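We emphasize that the prediction below concerns an isolated chain of 460 residues; any contacts that depend on oligomerization or on bound cofactors are therefore not represented. The input was used exactly as deposited, without trimming of termini.
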Amino acid sequence: MIGSISEQCLSGVCRPAVSTVLPERRLCVQGGEAMSQQSLIISGVSWFDDRGRTVNAHGGCIVGENGLCYLFGEYKTDEENRFAGFSCYSSPDLVHWTFRRIVLPQQADGLMGPGRIGERVKVMRCPTTGRYVMFMHSDDLGYRDPRICYAVCDTIDGDYEFRGPMTFRGEPIRRWDPGVFQDDDGTGYLLVHEGDIYRLSDDYLSAAEQVGEGIALGGEAPAAFKLGGRYWMLFSNKTSWDCNDNYCLSAPSMRGPWTYQGLFAPEGSMTCNSQSLFVIPVHTDRGMVPMYMGDRWSFPHQASAATYVWQQLSVNQGRLRLAEYWPAWSPVSGKEEPFEGRRIDVGFRSDRAGESVTIPFHGSRVALTGRADQWGSYARVGIRRAGMGGESAMVVNPIFVSWYAKSPDFGYRYVSPELPEDDYIVSITVTGEMPGWTDKTGQRFGSVGSFVAVDHLLVM
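Result of the prediction step, given as a token string:
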């Protein structure tokens, strides 16, 4: 768990007001039964909310208020890339998420209407007005009409009112991939691709001054934070939905000068197969650790299969590092911790569409492990109650799960939500798809195969 999160989010990260530690295990009641639940941040798998649906909030941020973490993000579909709304979830511990609402739905027309893209949503509370300001990238479906837009709301998880494009010197900011940063004195900053930095007006509703220009040419997905007395900014290279080796810069102030610091994750890891998103501090038993938040995109089935990579950062001898990838770790202890379960060998590997494997188990939660690589593709994974058939037997509806990874990865591919202890059957069905896409230049990215590989099932 993290400590209670204060209402202020300064330096682009949430500052815990009180470092309180809750028990590593808690009792969760579902279906009238009490169950012990392991409270771990598990990267690279779909997460499930209080409704049993996938947490669908990508490209966003976390804001703290009244002891809760509020996760904002893009509400994706599994069919196509279009703006379907921005979602909001809340959590007391970064592990268990409650769906609040779609805080900004698709508009009837205009920049956030039908046939538009809506991405990279960020939210900050303006200290001078007390209102919450939401920033976003609007575009056409071909990514040829970019605008940075904004919306406002009096409450953190209320209905945001769309206001239109952000302006600088009276002109719309026609850029993309907004990031935000709030300094210790409450000054707000807007970050965009290529490394331009704007100081916001006192009410956060326009850009008052450009304080940085082109500090990361060719870069996108900026994320800024303050650590060790310096300002840091993360950037991704431009490889469409595919991941790459992200890099960082540092400076003594937001005005610079910015110094290129190179890769912060091991070279070739493709930043743990993710793209930079946001950084927040997590207060653990061993002190505060900055947590990198990244998106592991999964085009085209983003709603089910796009996942999150949340890992610890450190500064060593003046260099920012994500030194080691932990598939699962406890936000209480701040240490790597494996998913606990009884192992069942599966040994399934196939690229034939429709081929499937079913595995019976008795327990309350399961995880699938296997290798993901450039030959991987999608499976549909679901859980039904044993001895029953039809849709009424499904306790976890099938979702798309990805076995594609640009940098080969062996680890968790699927972790189910907590269920009442009972007899179940998990099914894994190969879709036969070869997920691929092209960028605006026509360059192809994605998988070169359609394999699904399941090595083990872990049963809690």
